[in-house]
Structures
1.
Amino acid sequence: MLAAYAVTADADDPLEALRVDQIEPPAVPDGWIEVSVRAAALNHHDVFSLRGVGLPADRLPMILGCDAAGVTSDGREVVVYPVVGDPLFGGDDETYDPRRSLLSERYPGTLAEAVRAPARNVVAKPAELSFAEAACLPTAWLTAYRALFTSADLRPGDTVLVQGAGGGFATAAVSLARAAGLRVWVTSRTPERAERAVALGAHAGFASGERLPDRVDAVLDSVGAATWSHSINSLRPGGRLVTVGTTSGPDLPNAELTKIFFRPLRVIGSTMGTRAEFERLLRFLVATGVRPVIDRTLPLADAADGFAAMIDGDLFGKIVLEP
Ligand SMILES: NC(=O)c1ccc[n+]([C@@H]2O[C@H](COP(=O)([O-])OP(=O)(O)OC[C@H]3O[C@@H](n4cnc5c(N)ncnc54)[C@H](OP(=O)(O)O)[C@@H]3O)[C@@H](O)[C@H]2O)c1
């Protein structure tokens, strides 16, 4: 089958590690279901995989991709919840399972004509969502949903700052936050993407690092090193910084510890979401009419073009691939 997969790791030139070609379809383990992929979506996670982050050489070649929607062999239209848990984990919050992985980390991913997932990970796709829209949701949108409503515990009327405007996570956070009655501010490296975020629903857009008119209740930061100090400085006393990613790198020149304890702030790590949160996210979209922004839709065979746009930061919203 056709798939986009990593054949090696290249920290400096991730496109060198990518192959888009025929690959032997992986076996379907007992208790797993095969889904014929109608649409898959890219995440920055896939770029990190090509750079070798979280994907050791002994797991290569590895089909990339966490997100897909498609059809089961018995004709059900589904979307795949991508967190594969340890069956022995007893807790009810999958993100606390120390042995969890995402599709494409330990098991083959979604950028292919077909993907396999545990039966409990195959969730009914609401008829109101297209395959392309549903395929955008499992990683970026689920992470934004949990970051806003569980990790930051935001309420209607609160103010949230989203660092970065153009990405899949950032556009999801802006759309969900606006629909939930929050005041939404974003930053961006380009005025064009800040303006597009305002058109999407943000109340104001600022240049990266710009001083804000007021302090905020919470910041969602997926950028990491480049925005950390601004995130800390933008919070009101008692505010929450939810960190979900390190697109610009994880090494901080200044962790701002004095401000964190003196204000006093809370720093909260957040990753993906539970299956129950994923089902609530689907219902949220159906109830509100909010839909993912799709930057572009490409044939799976042209996956390299989508990866190049993501590596260059030349996108607004999600990149969808169709087999
Ligand atoms: N913890 C989790 O489970 C989880 C889930 C989803 C995503 N993530 C992480 O979140 C990050 C974003 O993922 P994504 O798929 O949304 O990626 P993406 O679509 O490539 O978006 C990248 C985002 O980062 C901003 N950005 C990049 N470099 C920047 C810099 N140097 N300074 C300021 N802003 C910068 C961009 O904003 P502008 O271009 O508008 O400035 C854009 O919003 C990744 O690190 C990813 O691994 C984590």
2.
Amino acid sequence: MRSFTYELLPGRVVFGSGTIVRLPVELDVLEASRVVLISDNMAKTDADQIESDLGGRVVGRIGEIEPHVPIEKVEAARRLTDDRQADAVVTIGGGSTTGVGKAIVLEKELSFLAIPTTYAGSEMTPIYGITVGDVKRTGRDPRVKPKTVIYDVDLTLDLPTEVTSGSTMNALAHCVEALYARERSPIVSIMALEGIRALKRGSMVVAGDPGNVDGRSDLLYGAFLAGASLGAVGMAIHHRICHVLGGTFGLAHGDANAVILPHVVAYNREAEPEVMAALADALGVAEPAQGIRELAETLGAPTSLAELGIKEPDLDRATEMIVDGVGYNPRPVEREWIRHLLEDAFAGRPPSAQ
Ligand SMILES: [Fe+2]
């Protein structure tokens, strides 16, 4: 007998190759006629194309995105939507770009359509973050989830290798932690395991052939499922560690994920034998922690904190911050273990259960 609670989140998803041409029709569905278009540097060319295709429907543009969604940028963007009497926000870019769109619609009643170009998965979640000073406040609010998401694999074909590797490992971590989350459910596990299979398959192809459409399609599909999983449950100790390493020590979220995930999987293995067996099966490996480490290596992702600029004396402070803010984890979190994990991760040692 199992029992669970699963809340379906509303939203429309268009997935495929060349789907960007559907944008005008999808804006019609949203009854959007005055669009503020937000893009990051990487997506500039695609955003230019969208602006010329939409003609007078684009009434404002933002083309510079800073990481972690600073409140000053959010307020300027909100003012722009007011000044131009916009009725919709369209974002095209990575997680920080989607994040600006979320921060706008948190306080403004506008339609929101997102076109993600990385594997961050933010477009499928009601989670937002805004940085005030040096503190990033995060929250959950159903209003911030985009009403429509267009996934176009063609926009990801030339994603740089270092973005691909970190972003893929971030998506993989969303799937893995969804499997043992406190709010887990059979539906979320189906999505997460399918996401893991797709991310593994895509990684093996894209590592040797970065522009391969089938490989890129698998990665984007896996990222969509990872985002949908992340949107339905809370995360565990892995994401706590990555947020401290990112928020306080400036590590890119994807890089932190690549280094830390194998160690966390090794630690949680004994507490969740059935989950770990399913994870190993989805990855097609005998030992999931080692399998994830090898996947990171295949993608060319970092495997040590030292190479990311963390200094050994930082490990004490990081340990304290992680333990102080710790939430749910299937195996209770012990200070000594966190310290030990960070030492292993710092040195790039293989994952080992304590
Ligand atoms: Fe993440």
